[in-house]
Amino acid sequence: MTFLETIFAQLKEDGTKVIGEVRDGQIASYTGGELLGMIAQARRFLAGRGLKHGDRCALLAPNSVRWVALDLAMIAEGLIVVPLDVRQVGAELAGMIEDSTPALICASDPALTADALANLAAEPPVAYFDAIFGGENARGALPGPPYHHADHDAVTIIYTSGTSGEPKGVVLNAGNVTFMRERTNARLDQLMGKGAEPDRVFQYAPFCFAAARILLFTSLSRNSFLTLSTDLTKLADELKIAGPNYFVNVPMFLERVRRKVEESIQKRGGWAAAVFAGARRAYVQQHGGAKVSLSDALCLRVASGAMFPAIRKNIGPNLKALICGSAPLAIETQLFYMMLGIPVLQVYGLTETTAICTMDDPRRVTPGRVGSAVPGIEMTVAENGEILVRGPNVFPGYWQRPAETAKALKGGWFHTGDQGEVDAAGNWRITGRLKNLLILNSGHNIAPEPLEHELAALLPEAQQVVLVGNQRSFLAALVTAAGSNGSANGLNEARVRAALDGINAELPHYKQIRAFHIVDEPFSMENGLLTTMGKVKRDAISTRFAREIEQIYQKKPA
After folding, report:
1. What is the DSSP string of 372-413?
2. 196 lies in a domain?
3. Whole-angstrom Cα distance, residue 236 to residue 238?
4. What is the helix (H) or strand (E) element at residue 390, kind and residue range?
5. For residues 329 and 376, which has the higher predicted lDDT (pLDDT)?
6. For residue range 25-51, what is the model confidence (pLDDT) as tens digits?
């Protein structure tokens, strides 16, 4: 069966609650039959619009049960879903709409479409959720079986976040999604076992991203209850209400939670702060194979019994694991959660690989690595260090971009643009992006990400670290403060200089970071310097801070 047929069969058999969303501090939940009823409403609406198989339909709305019902209804009618991110500015949304030429835009409310439509030369038809799920669509004959997709049939076009350059529409077909649903389901069986109780799953990442969509499809096709976040400003409260066993994260969120825990303990001071610091030293030293002092070992033992259980309960009392992807996770952060007794399972992949290439095995996690290749997927490293992938997860191509498709799939392998390495056990480590390489005028090629992570680990009061130096004589760093004022948060020139002295001592001359500039305002989606997945837009940052960067290189480095 296809992934969609598997989902419909599961929903038809499941009379229990399968999905819900947090509203006013409570979960509004729906059974499998109720969700099928909403899907039927949406299908009646779509059928009445005269849409034909293969038409594109854009979906612009925050996560909700109605979003899920409409997504599945579109696929069931043989339409190609184009999910759009509500957090993107109108001009960006307009570009994606013009590129995908949807026959219909479905949105939750007019406020979301106003800016995008204002930037369009020709406005496509728009339908809003209240009309789709109301009126005559609530009644009528039941739709027939869902459209049966061949593996090559396109089911969605997902636009990449665009850290540099113009976002591209990634076409994923039914074969891609069916394969990946089966593999993620198998991995979750390893994590959860096959008990009678349903998995408790929480979802806050927008469904316009491939990984979030795969988790959605997997959850609906297995014994699960999926709770959707409806207010990102209340994530901590929603997590307590949902009480999940696992959920998908981006590193930025895990870093934020870690920082809050550490700040809370520092404010308590005294015995608690001393024990926590000793416990962390002991855990990190144990992981690295170093000798642990007796006092630190005692701190770890005390913290494990008296402190860590309370912290775990506050983060999530039912957590079996945190799942993390989309960007590199600092090994210090992964060890932090493991120390607390919460495994962090890393996933690596791109939209073009149906979100996933590797997944950590819950039984064998190697911190700092992203697990082994999913069974059925081949991965290798090219001469230039680039990771190449082939398998049923690899997309058929970019929407209306044959030249870029041919380049990406040259030689029968998907060229990821990522650099990496694999150990003897088959576990991969991602070391950087080819396009992010900084090439000094000495000819040295340097991947910035490892150095950025190392410096950030020494500066917990910093929000981000971005290296610059392309075609320059040395590397420099832009360091952002965690708040609106660097000095007020403990980030100052002396702290940054001390951190640089610490890492430069262990680096060859061409990798040493010889200068820096402190940026008071963190990079964010609002100021256009982060993608909606929290990745830094390096080109935009270089342009925004061109004057400051030029001043760095006009001075003699320390």
Report:
1. EEPTT-EEEE-TTSEEEEESTTS-SEETT-HHHHHHHTGGGS
2. yes
3. 6
4. strand 386-390
5. 376
6. 999 999 999 999 999 999 999 999 999
